[in-house]
Design goal:
Shape: globular
Strand content: under 5%
Helix content: over 70%
CATH class of the largest domain: Mainly Alpha
Distance between the termini: 27 Å
Largest sheet: none
CATH topology of the largest domain: Growth Hormone, Chain: A
């Protein structure tokens, strides 16, 4: 196996390992808890246990300061497997203890993500980052499907303990590529890793503004997609097939196509072009109530997920380019956390918009927000220093410097 293939196998395994517990805790666990008689209020509050994913930037400087990211990942993977084995011994009635374990597993997975992103940034040249991000998005989504779908189906046969033990076994399997990977020497840095160091960058303000805005409008709209489909008469099984099957496949295809095109189009052109397409796709949701056939709904949902896959892969490719040498864990995590915070805030406010304006106007508003983000990004990217944030054409010198 070549070094590049070994690296891609490593990254694919680690991103799948992250998506596995996240998909389980956000999709399958609420159903299992409700089946066990847990109240809706407690199930709703359990979503706050995903907070480590939004706060992981606080840990990133420690990862940059460690000598071995390989050791960091190994320890976290084994810790995650141990926590899942512990969860298998807990009954649903022991809710406080179970929720503590869930929080710790999320913290471990989020910390592993910091090191994995840093490994990808340091090891991949700009020309390979598009495909690597397609792999990231795809592997993470596959992990979520296994954790949130396959394990929920298997729950009827293997039970509560069996589900957690199965996740622990899969986590251990995804650890094998790490044990066989030889970590290259780290890039020496003059400054100690710190969050303050990122915010002292000359382009920090415009860069974070672009990251906050870019996915805000899409998240604002998409958060109300499933409720809108139900309100317009779709059954729960229809929603599952539309979003879970057509949407998943289209999003995965969009991620792959985005990874292939981001180098050919250039970072800036791809980011703005796919962002505009993303806005148009969100606008298409404003017309789902006028769909006269089931295939029309499938086409609209697939179009939006495909455009979202294009835009997401391109954005995270640019995030890799915007990392300073030697500070990849800190820089990548601060940027990714900004995107997470923006999408969480957008999703939280989406229900108020849909309730006030109705689904049609809500999706129109979301599309305008998404297109406004593209216009703002076009202006703000001009203020980004090319050596620190090379979101330009790969034929330019800026694109070849990290």
């Amino acid at each position: 196996m070549t070094r590049d293939r070994r690296l891609l196998t490593l990254l694919g395994a680690l991103y799948l390992a992250q998506g596995l517990p996240f998909g389980f805790f956000t999709q399958a666990l609420p159903v299992m808890l409700r089946e066990a008689g847990v109240s809706l209020e407690r199930i709703g509050l359990a979503s706050l246990l995903a907070a480590p994913w939004a706060l992981k930037f606080l840990v990133a400087p420690w990862v940059d300061g460690t000598r071995s990211r390989r050791l960091w990942v190994l320890v976290l993977q084994l810790s995650g497997a141990a926590l899942l084995i512990l969860a298998s011994a807990l009954e649903p009635g022991w809710l406080p203890a179970l929720l503590v374990v869930v929080f710790l597993v999320n913290a471990v997975a989020a910390s592993q993500d910091i090191a994995t992103d840093a490994i990808a940034v340091d090891a991949l040249p700009p020309s390979r980052r598009g495909l690597a991000n397609a792999l990231q998005v795809g592997a993470y989504r596959v992990g979520m499907i296994i954790g949130g779908g396959a394990l929920l189906v298997a729950f009827e046969w293997i039970g509560w303990s069996g589900v957690f033990l199965a996740m622990a076994a899969m986590t251990l399997l995804t650890t094998l590529p790490v044990s066989r990977w030889r970590e290259p020497p780290r890039v020496p840095t003059k400054d100690a890793p710190s969050l303050a160091g990122f915010f002292r960058r000359a382009d920090a303000a415009p860069l974070l503004t672009v990251l906050f805005l870019f996915k805000f409008g899409e998240a604002f709209g998409v958060a109300m997609l499933k409720p809108a489909l139900v309100d317009f008469g779709a059954s729960l099984s229809d929603v599952g097939v539309l979003v879970g099957t057509f949407g998943f496949v289209a999003g995965l295809l969009g991620a792959v196509v985005g990874g292939l095109l981001v180098n050919r189009l250039g970072r800036r052109s791809a980011l703005l072009g796919f962002g505009a397409l993303q806005a148009c796709a969100v606008l298409a949701y404003a017309f789902i109530d006028r769909a006269t056939a089931w295939r029309d709904l499938a086409a609209i949902v697939s179009f939006e997920h495909f455009a979202g896959g294009l835009a997401t892969t391109t954005l995270f490719t640019c995030i890799m380019d915007w990392c300073r040498p030697g500070h990849s864990a800190t820089d990548a995590t601060v940027q990714a956390s900004t995107v997470v915070v923006a999408t969480l805030l957008a999703s939280a406010g989406s229900g108020f918009s849909a309730q006030t304006f109705g689904h049609h106007l809500h999706f129109v508003l979301a599309a305008f927000l998404a297109m406004g983000a593209v216009v703002a990004s076009a202006l703000l990217l001009k203020r980004v220093h090319p050596k620190e944030a090379p979101c330009a054409s790969p034929s330019t010198p800026a694109a070849s410097t990290p």
